[in-house]
From TrEMBL:
Top-level taxon in the UniProt lineage: Bacteria
Keywords for the protein's UniProt record, in alphabetical order: Isomerase, Rotamase
Name of this chain's protein: Peptidyl-prolyl cis-trans isomerase
Chain positions covered by the region annotation Disordered: 1-30, 62-92, 244-265
Compositionally skewed regions (Low complexity) per UniProt: 62-77
Species annotation: Streptomyces laurentii
PROSITE patterns found in the cross-reference section: CSA_PPIASE_2 (PS50072)
Keyword Ion transport: no
Sequence ranges of Basic and acidic residues compositional bias: 1-17, 78-87
EC number: 5.2.1.8
Pfam families xref list: Pro_isomerase (PF00160)
Domain PPIase cyclophilin-type per the UniProt entry, residue ranges: 106-262
Length: 265
């Protein structure tokens, strides 16, 4: 029989563990959502133009030792899982020479993404794997930016910018948009789809849809483009703005990915 004193000590230990867990989660969330330069003005030497940029973060922790070593076990993504990668990325199962289409049925309209496996095989393979597992179904596009950079960010199962599949994929195709200018940026053209991250090699499931030409450092894997109908749908979401009248945050018009499928073209 457990005495009242023992019970009190047990409850105290449990409370301490919960507090420690909350502190760890708070540190992780703060790191993911750190604003690199929410109002950073960069003056171009040539033209004197300025631009503002914010971090496109998500799925941030470095890959586990097993992932770095190229382990081939098949991961099992869970929507409630911590964003800390604990598993290797999915085994390669796509045709690296093929083009794939990702069909996103969203509450804002249908969006079709064309993905080039030759340029971003790990990224395309991961999206095919996750979509086949219905990982994206029912998830929210949690972030909209309307100043400096113009993107709608999706792919987080938690809907708050902290979620991921439990593994990390390498950066790819970082020179695909050309050589960086003097200010260290390249143009992500309207209609580009790229991976969000929080540093090199930290991509997971979060991605962003560029609805207006945007200049960013070439640190985000551009892995596809989305169709004109999709651009129009995202532009309508952007026109409605961000909640609370902000320039970066949850979109005023909530966007849910109702279903995502990936198929070979």
């Amino acid at each position: 029989m457990v005495s009242s004193d023992q019970r009190r000590r047990q409850l105290a230990r449990e409370k301490y563990l919960r507090q420690q867990q909350r502190r760890v989660e708070a540190r992780h969330k703060a790191r993911r959502n750190t604003v690199i330069a929410s109002a950073l003005a960069v003056v171009l030497a040539a033209g004197g133009a300025v631009w503002a940029s914010v971090a496109l973060s998500g799925d941030d922790s470095p890959a586990s030792d097993s992932a770095a070593a190229g382990a081939s076990a098949t991961p099992d993504p869970q929507k409630s899982e911590s964003a800390e990668p604990k598993q290797p990325e999915p085994a390669m199962s796509i045709d690296k020479k093929a083009t794939y289409a990702m069909a996103l049925k969203t509450s804002a309209g249908d969006i079709t993404v064309t993905m080039d496996a030759a340029k971003a095989p790990h990224t395309v393979n991961s999206f095919k794997y996750l979509a086949d597992k219905k990982y994206f179904d029912g998830t929210k596009c949690h972030r909209l930016t309307t100043s400096g950079i113009y993107v709608l960010q999706c792919g987080d199962p938690k809907g708050d910018g902290t979620g991921g599949p439990g593994y990390a994929i390498p950066d790819e195709n970082l020179t695909g948009l050309g050589k960086a200018k003097e200010d260290g940026t390249v143009t992500f053209p309207k209609g580009t789809v790229a991976m969000a991250n929080a540093g090199p090699g930290t991509g997971g499931s979060q991605f962003f849809l560029v609805y207006k030409d945007t200049r960013l450092p070439p640190n985000y894997t551009p892995f596809g483009t989305f169709d004109a109908a999709g651009v129009k749908a995202v532009e309508a979401v952007a026109k409605a703005g961000v909640q609370g009248g902000a320039q970066d945050g949850a979109p005023q018009t909530a966007v849910t990915v109702e279903k995502a499928t990936v198929s070979k073209k």
